[in-house]
Every structure is written in C-alpha cells, then in structure tokens.
C-alpha cells in the first residue's frame, strides 16, 4: 500500500504541476498575441499529457487515479475497494498541495508574477460567478463539473475494461481530459479533480478557497454517477 500511495502522490503532483504550471507559466507568456504563449489549447493538452504519461509510468503500481473523483467513481463502479478510498484521497491531496507549493516558488521567481485573489482563474484556480473565466453562474458551473466528470469516468472504465484493446487506455484517458478542458476552461477553469483544485486554491487566496467546496462536491458526485452508469452498462466490468 505504501508504494501505491507513493505512486498516487507523485502522479497527482505531476498532474497539477504540469497542467496548472502550463496555465500559470506558459498560457500567456509574453502577453496576449505572443506566439510563444500556449493559450487554452496548450493548457488543455498539457493536462491530457500529464495523465497520459503518468498512467503509463504509474498505472501498473496504483491504477493511476490521481484524482479523488476518479477513486470515488471507480468505487461506485465496483472497481475499487472502499477501504482504500481515504488513503488514496489523502495521498492525492498531498501531491496536489506539494505541486502547488513548488509552482508558487517557481512563479514567484519572476518579477512579472502577480497574484490577485479576486481575479478569475488566479494561479490556475477554479471558480464560478465572478471567479469563473467566462462569468458562468454557480448552476452552470456545477452542472458542467458533474457531467464532464461523469463522462470522464465512463471513458476511464471503458478504456480499462478487460475487453478493451490492451495498452491504449492512457491515450484515451489523456485525450478525454484534454477534451474536457477544451470544453470547460471558460466555465470553471476546469476542475473535475478536487486534488487539483485544492492544490492551487490554498495559494490562490481567499476567493478560490471560499469556492473550493463546489470543486469537491460536483466532481465526486459526477464521478460516482459515471461509475454507477458504467457498472449498469457493463456489469461484468472487472
């Protein structure tokens, strides 16, 4: 179990550092219109690449959840034991927080770095209402997070089904996460992962922290709905 938790810690660290790091350090590098800035598409791809590479590197050790919503969803789908939920979530949150800390240290090394707790997407944080990048309401943000996390679990469980083509699951899962970000960055800055949200919220300030509850409830609810749906769809899914 210690090695499995170590894999979840470092995998979640990689996801948050790579995904949120791309948003903080590279998305608008050089200002708007600079061809070196990677923008929304680049950030979306970065999140997908972290999951793809992390799953190939660590999936055989821990299952490569890197996300409390995935762990809860796999439990609801009959793929993960309840006794392992708390240790996995603890390791994931610690990995996310460590990534947030490292990213803050790197970002702070530039004189151009500024943090405004009242700004939408500050330090790659998630938000709704005035903290949504596109000004989306709490209802729209909640629905978006629930539905996209549910679909993420459907892809995960389908791609890792024993009848699915062997060896390709990380590709499908990574591309699914890329697509999710392409859809929802304007809405919530994309969570679908409470550990990812927590890892940067504690450094982003009071605004992100005050809304963090939603980015625990909605993704976990969505993950469980997706897991239960796939369990119904393919009952012999282990």
Automatic annotation (TrEMBL):
It comes from the Bacteria. GO terms for cellular component: plasma membrane. The record marks 47, 181, 190, 196 as: Selectivity filter. Keywords: Cell inner membrane, Cell membrane, Membrane, Repeat, Transmembrane, Transmembrane helix, Transport. Homotetramer. A motif (NPA 1) lies at residues 67-69. InterPro entries: Aquaporin-like, Aquaporin_transptr, Aquaporin_Z, MIP, MIP_CS. GO terms for molecular function: water channel activity. Aquaporins contain two tandem repeats each containing three membrane-spanning domains and a pore-forming loop with the signature motif Asn-Pro-Ala (NPA). It catalyses: H2O(in) = H2O(out). Channel that permits osmotically driven movement of water in both directions. It is involved in the osmoregulation and in the maintenance of cell turgor during volume expansion in rapidly growing cells. It mediates rapid entry or exit of water in response to abrupt changes in osmolarity. It is a multi-pass membrane protein. Belongs to the MIP/aquaporin (TC 1.A.8) family. It is found in: Cell membrane. The chain crosses the membrane at residues 36-58, 85-107, 136-156, 168-188, 208-230. The record marks 20 as: Involved in tetramerization or stability of the tetramer. The keyword Repeat applies. This is Aquaporin Z. SUPFAM superfamilies: Aquaporin-like (SSF81338). A motif (NPA 2) lies at residues 193-195.
């Amino acid at each position: 179990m210690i090695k499995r938790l170590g894999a979840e810690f470092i995998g979640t660290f990689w996801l948050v550092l790579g995904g949120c790091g791309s948003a903080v350090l590279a998305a608008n590098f050089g200002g708007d219109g600079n061809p070196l800035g990677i923008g929304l598409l680049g950030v979306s791809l970065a999140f997908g690449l972290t999951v793809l590479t992390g799953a190939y590197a660590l999936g055989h050790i821990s299952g490569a959840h890197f996300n409390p919503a995935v762990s809860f969803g796999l439990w609801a789908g009959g793929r993960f034991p309840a006794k392992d939920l708390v240790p996995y979530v603890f390791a994931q949150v610690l990995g996310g927080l460590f990534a947030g800390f490292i990213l803050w240290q790197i970002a702070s090394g530039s004189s151009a770095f500024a943090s405004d707790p009242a700004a939408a997407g500050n330090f790659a944080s998630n938000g709704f209402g005035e903290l949504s990048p596109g000004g989306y309401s709490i209802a729209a943000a909640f629905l978006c997070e629930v539905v996209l996390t549910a679909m993420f679990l459907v892809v995960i469980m389908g791609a890792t089904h024993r009848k699915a083509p062997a060896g390709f699951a990380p590709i499908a899962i990574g591309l699914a996460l890329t697509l999710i970000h392409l859809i929802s960055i304007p809405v919530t800055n994309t969570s679908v992962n409470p550990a990812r949200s927590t890892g940067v919220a504690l450094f982003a300030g009071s605004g992100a922290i005050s809304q963090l509850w939603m980015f625990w409830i909605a993704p976990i609810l969505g993950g469980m709905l997706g897991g239960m749906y796939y369990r119904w769809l393919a009952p012999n899914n282990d």
